[in-house]
From TrEMBL:
Its cofactor is FAD. PANTHER family: ACYL-COA DEHYDROGENASE, ISOVALERYL-COA DEHYDROGENASE, MITOCHONDRIAL-RELATED. One of its GO terms (cellular component) is mitochondrion. Gene3D superfamilies: Acyl-CoA dehydrogenase/oxidase, N-terminal domain, Butyryl-CoA Dehydrogenase, subunit A, domain 2, Butyryl-CoA Dehydrogenase, subunit A, domain 3. This is Isovaleryl-CoA dehydrogenase. Residues 135-208 form the Acyl-CoA oxidase/dehydrogenase middle domain. One of its GO terms (molecular function) is 3-methylbutanoyl-CoA dehydrogenase activity. Keywords: FAD, Flavoprotein, Oxidoreductase. Pfam families: Acyl-CoA_dh_1, Acyl-CoA_dh_M, Acyl-CoA_dh_N.
């Protein structure tokens, strides 16, 4: 915790005034004072350091080389929020990780997804400083929802393993120095024959019991990534609210029209009620339910954001189209909405 406050002071103390103007929504009923302070601090960092590059990153599909965002996030201690302090982390829980994920997603959905893949999917304890980028390679061209059917194979040889196979959809894949790669070490053992390998440039290592690591990791992945759609919904409101105050039709701001007020009311309600269900529980069906609910609402909120801006919402002059794409991803990545419903339904069916 001390490290976070140290990082905070590096960026100065101008947080409060700006954020009070910037955020029209209150989180004060959901968080205590320390959590609110953390949220405001990450928000300022994200708006100052990440948001100015969001459009360029979306257009070029690459991290800007001139701004070392990754390292800056490391200096701000964002990579090791849940890692113990003795390993250089902040020693905080998953609620703080979710708060950071929300604020980063508010600034840029794609940077936040990269951050989520690095700090959550990939073992965050290894990658706290931001010197290295991490990735997780699980999906394959023919193994998406049915990921256990993966074909990637690891054969034991003298001094280690040789891994052969094709991986796909690996967030941070092109730039990662450290990868968690899942492969079959026993093709006859089904899900029990999967091993998680930690592969780093210049270093080899492996973790056994891959399917356990894979499935337990998916619960936490869903929990932390559920905060992504929250940030995107907040970004939709950040775009829409100033617009409807300024845009005039029929001689008055469109925000005075009841239809538009109804839309922003629905958007706000979707955001706030999703925050309530993002409550830090680590139960497979609750993790699946949290991201299912937040992701589907985020897509609807992004569609409403486009509608509120009319023609301007449809073209790429405003962020709304990007926000819709960023929101829709959360219905697909980390297991699709359909798979999440199966996880929840199966859990409920099994419970006494
Ligand atoms: C931008 C992005 C980033 C990603 N990052 C990573 C990453 O870092 N690491 C990684 O390993 N993977 C990653 N993924 C992969 C992601 O996890 C898969 O896309 C996801 O699991 C779905 O697999 P699929 O795309 O092959 O779809 P499919 O599994 O082919 O599914 C197609 C459709 O069929 C439905 N379906 C499939 N099975 C069932 C069923 N049993 N019942 C009902 N409906 C079903 C699905 O819900 C979906 O609607 C990423 C994907 C994207 C788009």
């Amino acid at each position: 915790m001390q490290r976070f406050f140290a990082a905070r002071s590096i960026l100065g103390n101008a947080v409060k005034t700006r954020m009070r103007c910037f955020s029209s929504l209150s989180s004060s009923l959901l968080f205590d004072d320390t959590q609110l302070q953390f949220k405001e601090s990450v928000s300022k960092f994200a708006q100052d350091v990440i948001a100015p590059h969001a459009e360029r990153i979306d257009k070029t599909n690459s991290f800007p080389k001139d701004v070392n965002l990754w390292k800056k996030m490391g200096e701000f201690n964002l990579h090791g929020i849940t890692a113990p302090e003795e390993y250089g982390g902040l020693g905080l829980g998953y609620l703080y990780h979710c708060i950071a994920m929300e604020e980063l997603s508010r600034a840029s959905g794609s940077v936040a997804l990269s951050y989520g893949a690095h700090s959550n999917l990939c073992i965050n304890q290894l990658l706290i400083s931001g010197d290295h980028i991490g990735a997780l390679a699980m999906s394959e061209p023919n193994a998406g929802s049915d990921v256990v059917s993966m074909k990637c194979k690891a054969d034991k040889v003298d001094g280690g393993y040789i891994i052969n196979g094709n991986k796909m959809w690996c967030t941070n894949g092109p730039s990662a120095e450290t990868l968690i790669v899942y492969a079959k070490t026993d093709t006859k053992a089904g899900s029990k024959g999967i091993t998680a390998f930690i592969i780093e440039k210049g270093m080899a290592g492996f973790v056994r019991a891959g399917v356990y690591v894979l499935m337990s990791g998916l619960d936490l992945e869903r929990l932390v990534l559920a905060a992504g759609p929250l940030g995107i919904m907040q970004a939709c409101l950040d775009t829409v609210l100033p617009y409807i105050r300024q845009r005039e039709q029929f001689g008055r701001p469109i925000g005075e029209l009841q239809f538009i007020q109804g839309k922003v009311a629905d958007m706000y309600t979707a955001l706030q009620s999703s925050r309530d269900c993002d409550n830090g529980n680590i139960d497979p069906k609750d993790c699946a339910g949290t991201i299912l609910c937040a992701a589907e609402r985020a897509t609807q909120v992004a569609l409403q954001a486009i509608q509120c801006l009319g023609g301007n919402g449809y073209i790429n002059e405003y962020a709304t189209g990007r926000l819709l794409r960023d929101a829709k991803l959360y219905e697909i990545g980390a297991g699709t909405s359909e798979i999440r419903r199966i996880v929840i339904g199966r859990g409920l069916f099994k419970e006494p």
